[in-house]
Write a structure and sequence with these properties.
Number of helices: 7
Helix content: 40-55%
Number of domains: 2
Largest sheet: 2 strands, antiparallel
Strand order of the largest sheet: 1-2
Number of strands: 2
Distance between the termini: 33 Å
Length: about 140
């Protein structure tokens, strides 16, 4: 299997952080290109949280992705089938993601994962999204991204 990483968790569709990444992971999985390390939590974690936020199931989204279409088309499908979040809802989702792991209940998990990756001394990795970035070979982004 040829594996490649999905897009950055900071990428947005319809203003929603992480949505393009979730679709990328689905497409990569369906094409046999999602790294094996990602299979155990496929559809869980932030992907599951995002689906819950949109009131759709990950399995249904995966079926829709298999039919084809752009990220915008799949997002519109999700909003028609589940719910259409307000600008305020999207702001809260995005802020939760941007700060997850920074002085919250996920902070210890972030430190543990960094240590497990041999990056325990890194001070530039402040959030779970930063961790995803550096683990996949991208620099952490500014917290205001």
């Amino acid at each position: 299997m040829n594996s490649r990483f999905p897009r950055s968790p900071y990428d947005r569709e319809g203003g929603i952080l992480f949505f393009p990444r979730m679709l990328d992971k689905i497409r990569l999985f369906q094409g046999g290109e999602l790294p094996e390390d990602y299979h155990e939590n496929f559809g869980k974690g932030f992907d599951g949280g995002l689906c819950s936020f949109l009131h759709v199931s990950h399995g249904d989204v995966a079926e829709r992705v298999a039919e084809g279409g752009s990220d915008a088309e799949v997002l519109e499908w999700c909003m028609e089938r589940g719910r259409r979040p307000t600008e305020g809802d999207i702001f809260l989702w995005n802020e939760f993601l941007r700060k997850c792991g920074w002085k919250d209940r996920f902070a210890e998990r972030l430190r543990t994962r960094l240590q497990g990756l041999g990056m325990g001394g890194r001070t530039d990795v402040q959030t779970m999204l930063d961790l995803i970035e550096v683990d996949e070979g991208r620099p952490p982004r500014d917290a205001g991204a």
